Amino acid sequence: MKYPNLCNTKNILFASLIIVFSACSNKKTEPLKKNKENTVYVNPFIGTGGHGHTFPGATTPNGMVQLSPDTRTSGWDACGGYHYSDNSIRGFSHTHLSGTGIGDLGDILFMPFVGDVKTKPGTPENPDLGYRSRFNHEDEVAIPGYYSVDLLDYKIKAELTASTRVGFHRYNYPKDETKRLVIDLNHTIHDRQVVKSEFKVISNTEIIGYKHIKGWAQNRHIYFHAKFNQPFATKFFNDSVEVIGINELNGKNLVAVLSFEGDNSKHLLTKVGISSVDYEGAKKNLLEEVPHWNFEQVKQDAHNSWVKQLDNISVEGGTEDEKTIFYTSLYHTAMSPYIFNDLDGRYRGMDQNIHTIGTGNMYTVFSLWDTFRAFHPLLNITEPSKNNEYVNSLLTMYDQGGILPKWELSANYTGTMIGYHAVPVIVDAYFKGVKDFDIDKAYEAIVHASTYNEEGINFPSERVKGKLSPTAKRANDELGYIPADIENESVSKALEYAYNDWCIAQMAKDLGKMEDYERFMERSKRYKKYFDKETGFMRGLNQDGKFRVPFDPKYSNHRVDDYVEGNAWQWTWFVPHDVNGLVDVMGGKEKFISKLDELFSTSSDVKGERSSADISGLIGQYAHGNEPSHHITHMYNFVGESWKTQKLTDSIMSSLYFNNPNGLSGNEDCGQMSAWYILNAMGFYSFSPGSPEYTIGRPIFDKVEIKLQNGKQLRVITKNNSPKNLYVQSFKLNGKIMETPFFNHQDIQEGAVLEFEMGSTENKQLFNN
Predict the structure, then answer these.
(1) pTM
(2) 275 forms bridges with which residues in the sheet?
C-alpha cells in the first residue's frame, strides 16, 4: 500500500540510486555460525534505501517487537523509521512497519548518551542540538534477530536483539563517563499525536510507561515495562521542563532521562516488554519470555527462530546475489502480520475491549490491498496453518468491529486503500484446503463486505466508517456501476469490486448457494462497462453514460483521478478472474496480444504534474513498483505466448531486484513485493487468488524444495539452467509432460515434482494450442 502525495519518481533516479548503493551488497550480514544456514543469505538492509521503506533492526518471525534504529520521522521515506541515506540516529524504538506507504508506530524510543542531559532529539542537519548521534554504515551489523551500531558522538556501541514480545538492549559506554539514557514517549514515526502518556518508576532498576496515540491507527494503546541491570536515578521532563520530586508523570510530551552510577566496566543491559493491553501484560511478557540477563542467549534464540523459518524453502543453484534476494524476501514475508496477543492470550479487540484468544495467536497489520496477491497465496503453500490463523484473526475482527478490514493496524480500521480484499484472502485459503475456520461466518462476512451498509460498524470516526463502506459500494449496488463524476478513483474501485465479487461467486457455488452465485457472477462481469473500444482502455464512465474527457492513458493525478496510484495503462489489465472475457472485449486474441506487447514497449513517460510516485519500476508502462501490475506478465500464458511471460519475469527479477539498500523498485508492502519474487523465482505464480490454479514462468534456481506441513514435499527441478537459458522448452508435472502452462494447488498438496527443461531460444510452439 502506498499513499504519498508526491511527484513521480522516474527510473533515472532509481538507476542512479542503484549505483550509489552498489557498494553495500553483502555488507556485514555474516551468520552467527560458520555454516550455510539460510540466514547467511539475509541482508536486512535491502529495501532501506530508495522507497522500499523497510527497517534493519532486530525482530523475530511475526514478532510483536521490531527493535530498530530511527533516523527520521517525517516524509514519505520515513515510513520504516530508517533510511539508508541518513547519517544520524535519533534512537531505537520498539515497533515498526515493514515497507508500508504510510508511517506509524515507532513506540518507546530509547537512546543512550553521555554528557549533559538532553531532552530534544536534535535534527538530521545538526544532531548536536539534541541526543541524536552520527553513525557510519561501516559500523553497522544487521543479521536476522540482531542489530548493532557505533554511536560516534558518544563512543557507545549499541546492540539490539528481541524475543517475540521483548526488546533486549546492550550498550557499551566509554569508561569514566556517566551512563545516561533517554526514554522519549513523544517520539512517533510520521509525528503522530500523543493523546496521553505516562511514566512510573517502580524501583531503582524498573520503569514502566504508557502511550495513547492518534495517528494512522486512530485509537492506539501501548504499555511497556523496562528492567535494567544497574540502578538508575531519574529526571522527568514535560515539554522539556524538568518536573522534580515525583516518581510518576502524566502528560503529552514526556521524556525520562536515566543516569546510571554503576560499574562503568559493565555493559548496560535493559529488557523491555510491551503490550497493547495493560501494564500487567507488559510485565508478564517480559518476565516470562526473558527471565534472565543473557543477551547472547536471546540473540541466539532469535537467530534460531529465523533459521527454522527460512528452512521452509531450500534452493540450489543461482548466484549468491539471487540467493540473498530470495532469502531476504522470505525474511520479509515473515515479519508481518505481527502477533498482537500477550503471553496470557489477552489482546485489544476491534471494539477496543480486552479479549482472550483460546488457541493460536491474534494478529495485527493486515495490508490486504497488497498482500492478497502473492503473500497469502505463498503462505497457503509454505505455512497454511499460519495463514489459517490470519483468516481467523480477520473473522474475529469482523465479529468485534462489524465489518472485515481493508487495512487493519493495532485493532483499528484505517479504511486505507480500496476494494474488499479480505475476500480473496479467505476464498483463496478455502479453495486451497486451508479452512479450519467457521465457513458459514466467513461466507456471511465476505458477502457483507461487498454491500453498502454503514450499520453496525464499530468505529468512532465517521471519516473511517465512510471509507469502510464508501459511496462506491452504494453506486455499485444501486446503479450497477460507479460513475466517475460522483466517485473518485471509480475505475480502480470498479475493477477490484468485480474481482472480489467473482471470488464470492466461487465460494457461493461451492457451498451450493446458486442464487448468490448468479448474482455475484453478474457483478463480476461489470468490468466490461468501463472498457472503451475506441481507445482500448478502461475509462471513467460518467452518469450520462459517456466516458470522462479529456483522456490520456499515461496521465496520473495522484489519488484524485479515476485510478489508484496508477494510470489507464496499468489498470486496464486488472481482470485476473476473466482473462478470456478481457480478450473478447479487446477484440480477440491478436488485438489483446498487440495491446499487451505495447504495454511493455511503449515509452515510460508518465503525464501529469502530480503523477503518482508509486508508478515506479517501469518497463514501458508496466509498473512493478506497485501491486496492480503484479499479475500482468503472466497474462501471456492465457493467449499462447508463454515465452513472453518467461522473458519478462526473468527481466523483472534481474533488473528490478538487487542485493543492496535500493534493492526494491517500490514499497515492500508487508511482504507482497518479496512474495512476488519468491513465487516467480520458483517458476510459478498464483495469478488470480481465489482460484487454485497456478501459471508458470521462468525458475531461476536449479532445485527448490518446500517442506509441506502435511509431511509431503514440493520439488522444482530446472535442467539446463543458466542466465541465457531463460526459455522453457518443456514442463513436466510428476513426470508427465504438461500441455498447458498451468497446474493446480491440489497437485502441490499431494506432493509434486515440477520439472522444467530450459533453453536459450523462444519455444513458440510450447503451450500454443
Answers:
(1) 0.95
(2) 223
- Strand (E) or helix (H) holding 732: strand 727-733
The full set of domain ranges for the chain reads 29-309
- Stated as kind and residue range, the H or E segment containing 171 is strand 166-172
Q: Would you call 683 exposed, middle or buried from its count of C-beta atoms within 10 A (0-12, 13-18, 19+)?
A: buried
Taking CA atoms, 222 is separated from 37, 348, 465, in Å, by 35, 10, 24
Strand 179-184: give its sheet, edge to edge: 58-59, 66-70, 91-93, 109-113, 179-184, 254-260, 232-238, 241-243
- Cell numbers of 130, please? 539534541
Measured CA to CA, the distance from residue 313 to residue 326 in angstroms comes to 10
Specify the pairing of strand 531-532 against strand 366-367: unpaired
CATH of 29-309, one of 3.10.310.40, 2.70.98.10, 2.130.10.10, 2.10.25.10: 2.70.98.10
Q: Which three cell numbers stand for residue 411?
A: 485493532
pLDDT tens profile 38-51: 999 999 999 999 99
Find, among 114, 105, 58, 62, the residue nearest to 80 by Cα: 105
Place of cell 455475484: 520
User: Could you tell me which residues come within 8 angstroms of residue 651 by beta carbon, excluding any fewer than 6 positions away?
Assistant: 619
Contact 273, 165 (CB under 8 A): yes
In the chain, the N- to C-terminal Cα span, in Å, equals 38
Q: What confidence tens digit (pLDDT) does each residue in 233-265 have?
A: 999 999 999 999 899 999 999 999 999 987 777
In this structure, the chain runs to a length of 769
708-711 contacts: CB < 8 A, separation 24 or more? 708/381, 708/748, 708/749, 708/751, 709/383, 709/384, 709/385, 710/749
Q: What is the pLDDT of residue 460?
A: 64
Q: Which residues in the chain land under pLDDT 70?
A: 1-35, 460, 769
Task: Determine the residue type at 427.
Answer: V
Q: Give the C-alpha distances (Å, rounded to integers) separating 657 from 267, 401, 693.
A: 39, 38, 26
Q: What is the DSSP string of 557-590?
A: -TTSSSSSSS-HHHHTT--TT-HHHHHHHTTSHH
Q: What is the pLDDT of residue 695?
A: 98
